[in-house]
Write a structure and sequence with these properties.
The chain has helices at residues 3-18, 51-69, 86-98, 109-115, 132-143; strands spanning 24-27, 42-44. By secondary structure, it is mainly alpha-helical. Helix 2 (51-69) packs across helix 3. The longest helix is centred in the middle third of the chain and has 19 residues, at 51-69. The radius of gyration is 16 Å and the shape is globular.
């Protein structure tokens, strides 16, 4: 392993430890220093905890609540406590099923790809409009961009 790769791995490990990323099963070495802080660069599952898990809980539950209001009957209630437990796994699985993904309850690259490409619905009927600022901040922290909201 080159010195550059060892340094990158150390930075990722240090960032994971500093942010309390327990239950993170895979760290993807970021290409820039700022990318190290985005949740989408990690895989989350049962046992995970921290602010990224809370962002997952917010984004998945708000999206599912919106879909539920439009007729989807999947689970959509999850406590925003930052702990990836059975309730979060069930919500992630419901989200994955709704989005046509394998419903394994693990938030990895495919699930992040869908989460980070979801756009906030503005104007007209929006049953979750009161959560717009929550969605915006969670999306920015998790996905590293503002393209997912208006």
């Amino acid at each position: 392993m080159s010195l550059k790769n060892r340094i990158a791995a150390t930075v990722v490990a240090t960032a994971a430890a500093a942010t309390g990323l327990v239950g993170v099963t895979e760290a993807v070495a970021p290409t820039t220093a700022s990318a190290a802080t985005y949740c989408k660069n990690y895989v989350y599952e049962i046992g995970g905890s921290g602010s990224c898990v809370m962002d997952i809980q917010k984004l998945v539950s708000i999206d599912l609540a919106y879909d539920h209001a439009l007729g989807y009957t999947g689970a959509y209630t999850v406590t925003w406590d930052g702990i990836f437990g059975p309730q979060t796994k069930t919500a992630v699985q419901a989200y994955q099923r709704y989005e046509g993904l394998t419903a394994d309850g693990i938030v990895g690259p495919k699930t992040w790809g869908v989460i980070c490409s979801t756009e906030w619905v503005g104007g007209g009927y929006n049953p979750v409009a009161k959560y717009e600022s929550t969605w915006n901040s969670a999306f920015l922290a998790a996905c590293g961009s503002t393209s997912g909201y208006m």
